[in-house]
Amino acid sequence: MSAPDPTAPRPRTMDVYRQWWMHDARWYQGVAERFGAEAANQINAEALRYVAARVGRQVARQFGRKPPADLEELRLRYDACADWMFPSELRDGGTAVLDDETIELTMRQNFAVTMVRMAGSLDSYECPCTDIHAGWSEGLGVRLTGNCATACLRDGDPACRLLMRVARPA
Q1: Which DSSP string do the residues of the chain spell out, in sequence order?
Q2: Which strands sit side by side in the sheet containing 144-151, from one edge to the other?
Q3: Angle at 47 between CA 122 and CA 91, to 5 degrees
Q4: Which of 2, 37, 114, 167 could anchor a disulfide with 124, C-beta 3.0 to 4.6 Å?
């Protein structure tokens, strides 16, 4: 067997990501066809929450495992979680502090919705966004008292809008 040609074109990182996301979308579709959309959505949400909690722990380590000084610093930690979990090239969004307990995440582009649409499963797909935020919060050591979506790209809204209400420290 000969060595690979070092002058041959190599896939770009984004191309590799896209292949894995297409795999993920096809995996979802296969589970949904064999076991039902409810099972596919539950397994997807469980897996994403697991990964999100791990990402939250990685981000917490970056910040020395210290609690955030305020909601603005926590907002920055959620942004760091998004950076660790999703490449910026395929998402357009960010977070904002709304009041002394609430952080809003806005997403104007979501590659997962795009890939599931391309796989033909958008009608049965349930966005796992609140599970991702619950995982990030768990990993960051933050207790949420509220975690809900108020708008979703999957439903045709111009952006996903998610609210995370943070428990005040005792």
Answers
A1: -PPP-TTS----HHHHHHHHHHHHHHHHHHHHHHH-HHHHHHHHHHHHHHHHHHHHHHHHHHTTTPPPSSHHHHHHHHHHHHHHHS-GGGEEEEEEE-SSSEEEEEEEEEHHHHHHHHHT-TTT----HHHHHHHHHHHHT--EEEEEEEE-GGGT-SSEEEEEEEPPP-
A2: 91-97, 102-110, 160-166, 144-151
A3: 55
A4: 37
Give the dihedral sign, CA 85/88/89/92.
positive
Local confidence pLDDT in tens for the 170 residues of the chain: 667 667 767 767 777 777 877 788 788 888 999 999 999 999 999 999 999 999 999 999 999 999 899 999 999 999 999 989 887 777 788 999 999 999 999 999 887 787 778 777 788 889 899 999 999 999 999 999 999 999 999 888 999 999 999 997 65
Tokens representing residue 63 in the block: 């910040």
Instruction: Supply 131's token pair.
Output: 């599970």
